[in-house]
Design a protein that fits this description.
Layout lengths: L2 H16 L2 E2 H11 L8 H13 L3 E5 L3 H10 L5 E5 L1 H11 L9 H9 L6 H29 L5 H36 L37
Antiparallel strand pairs: 1-3, 2-3
Helix pairs in contact: 1-3, 1-5, 1-6, 7-8
Length: 228
């Protein structure tokens, strides 16, 4: 399985965990909620869905209501197929959520993982955020060293482009620092609760979680080549 198809399967399972959907609804959600999937077609989505069905992680159902099933024969159109997550699919998605290997820190995979942080445990969120930060700090170090070696040979525009790329990575590192500190603050707040009980956070789906923040800007789009 390619890395790209693996990310798509992860995102599809995550969205269907929220509710069953038609293929059209899935594609729309992938386009609007997950920027990494802006440019992909039904020709990419449906083979992915067929694979997930074959693996037993999804099932196909005809229509979402009795009215849908009746409308198709009367209109002469095929009934819409609704995709629903199975118990095995939910278990597989939860297993994927718990993984914190190097792939979780890469640009496209990190964006997909972050979109489902609300369903992810705090410990896993912290490992992914810290891993992503370390990866970007390594990238910054390499970019800085490369710029120092080639500065004298670059024209003003190429030099400015490289500086812009570095600034984009630096901005994401600052954003990650803020998120990590917020996660730690939420954990410390839970530990300091007088009766030891866990506070339920509506944004995280678990005890504690990321406090609501109005001053955090999103990171640069991972599809922006200048940020790599």
């Amino acid at each position: 399985m390619s890395r790209r198809s693996g990310i798509l399967e992860f995102a599809v399972l995550g969205l269907l965990r929220e509710s069953p959907m038609h293929g059209y609804e899935l594609r729309k959600r992938l386009n609007t909620s997950l920027g990494v999937f802006r440019a992909f077609s039904y020709g990419t989505l449906y083979p992915c869905l067929k694979t997930l069905v074959a693996n037993g992680w999804l099932i196909e159902e005809t229509g979402s209501t009795p009215e849908d099933a009746l409308a198709a024969p009367l209109s002469g159109r095929r009934a819409k197929i609704v995709y629903r997550l199975t118990a095995e699919g939910k278990e597989h998605f939860e297993e994927l959520l718990s993984q914190t290997g190097p792939d979780a820190y890469e640009d496209e995979h990190f964006a997909a993982r972050f979109a489902f942080f609300g369903q992810t445990s705090r410990d896993v969120r912290m490992r992914v955020l810290e891993g992503r930060r370390s990866r970007l700090e390594e990238r910054l170090e390499k970019m800085s060293a490369s710029l120092a070696r080639t500065r004298e040979r670059l024209d003003d525009y190429t030099l400015e482009l490289q500086r812009h790329g570095m600034e984009s990575v630096e901005r994401e590192v600052r954003w990650l620092n803020e998120l990590i500190e917020s996660e730690r603050a939420g954990r410390d707040q839970q530990r300091s609760t007088p009766d030891g009980s866990a506070r339920q956070d509506s944004t995280s789906g678990e005890s504690g979680g990321l406090p609501r923040r109005r001053d955090v800007n999103p990171p640069p789009d991972p599809s922006d080549d200048t940020a790599k």
